[in-house]
Amino acid sequence: MDPFRAIGRCFRNYANFNGRGRRSEFWPFYFFGMIAGPLAALAIALLGVFLATNVLGTDVDGSGSYTSDELNGPVMVSGFVLAGLAYVALLIPVLAAWSRRLHDMGQTSGWLFLCVIGFSIVPFIMAFFPSEPVPNRYGQVPEGIRPLAAPGQFAPTAA
Q: What predicted TM-score, i.e. pTM, was given to this entire model?
């Protein structure tokens, strides 16, 4: 799966924590989220600074330069709040994709709680593991994975 298709699929499944997701779907979206999240937060914060300095004219003393006291107004605070919301808006689909990736390996999403207590390296490493090639309790084998055959049978080949 090409990276843009994977990113689009993850956004279509924005808050879907059910089902399975392949590595080719997870990794492009994970890296997109880790790059786009901070960039979106920075852009919104800079927009708040621009609005505070140029549009709303918070240069109180008329000197043409802005002191930190003049920039600590409600516009700055709202800019950082919007930046935080943008980051959270990207965090939800990343966690959903991560959950589907863990399901693809036959693992529970409970592993993501390790991220809360500072052990995010464990689910990160687990995301590298291969998919389960058989249907599991989270769903059928995703497209592009060759399922295992029952004993004494041959596995179907991809057409």
A: 0.70
